[in-house]
Amino acid sequence: MEAIGVPFPKSQPMRIYSSLWNADEWATRGGLVKTDWSQAPFTASYRNFNVRPGVLTQLDSSRDEKMKRVQKNHMIYNYCTDTKRFPQGFPRECAITTST
């Protein structure tokens, strides 16, 4: 998506950072699902994490339908539809309508 101005850090090594914050108002189905803070402290770890970059290709029609079905039935949050978070307009990558 660099062609439409979406930056990508391709000239440096990548690292993974994680954090946990209270996003009850926007990342949990618009506030419908609340974080159970009584279960804190929350911990996470990565073991033998290895990413192998590859070329993204467009999905064929069968895989595209499967992806849409998974998104419809399992995706909890999509920032490209969150008008409260982006009242001035969505990020550029949200304009892409094809699955990659």
UniProtKB/TrEMBL annotation:
UniProt keyword list: Glycosidase, Hydrolase, Transferase
GO CC terms of this entry: apoplast
Catalytic activity, as annotated: breaks a beta-(1->4) bond in the backbone of a xyloglucan and transfers the xyloglucanyl segment on to O-4 of the non-reducing terminal glucose residue of an acceptor, which can be a xyloglucan or an oligosaccharide of xyloglucan
Domain Xyloglucan endo-transglycosylase C-terminal: 57-94
Lineage: superkingdom: Eukaryota
Record Pfam families: Glyco_hydro_16 (PF00722), XET_C (PF06955)
EC number of the protein: 2.4.1.207
Transmembrane segments: none
Gene3D superfamilies in the cross-refs: 2.60.120.200
Ranges for domain GH16: 5-38
An MF annotation (GO) of this entry: hydrolase activity, hydrolyzing O-glycosyl compounds
GO biological process: glucan metabolic process
Hydrolase is among the record's keywords: yes
InterPro entries from the UniProt entry: Beta-glucanase-like (IPR000757), Beta-glucanase/XTH (IPR044791), ConA-like_dom_sf (IPR013320), XET_C (IPR010713)
PANTHER family the UniProt entry points to: XYLOGLUCAN ENDOTRANSGLUCOSYLASE/HYDROLASE PROTEIN 8-RELATED
Record-given protein name: xyloglucan:xyloglucosyl transferase
